[in-house]
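Protein entry
_____________
===
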Amino acid sequence: MKEDYYQAFARLMADTYTLYLKTQNYHWHVRGPHFKTLHLMFEEQYMQLALGVDALAERILTLGRNAPATFAEFSQLRTLEEGNSSRTAEQMVAALCEDHQLILKDLYKVLKMAQEVNDEGSATLLGDRIAEHEKNHWMLKASQM
């Protein structure tokens, strides 16, 4: 695995972990008239993200590298901002919506890299991740007040 390919994968994993933690944070702290709907949607999404983090880590390991696995490594690699639990429900939805868009941009970049090196296993995984982030982005966008 080339170093730039590994770094792109590791950054994607760190951002996915950051989005997982942010979504879980918002699940715990969301308030307002749409509490139940958002609380349940955030729970479903953070559970999916946890599986995504695991799949990305296992793919990195399969390709012969160590997956980032500490908060220090995630902090160093991530590009997404951590969640702010004092935000309003509307701000939480908007932030998560934006984060899914940012991860989608990175997913497409890493997918292109995978295709260039004929890494079909990664391309399949990344395609699945793209579909999930597109769906979550759509659900969040449709939930914006």
Summary: The helical segments are 3-29, 35-62, 71-77, 89-116, 120-143.
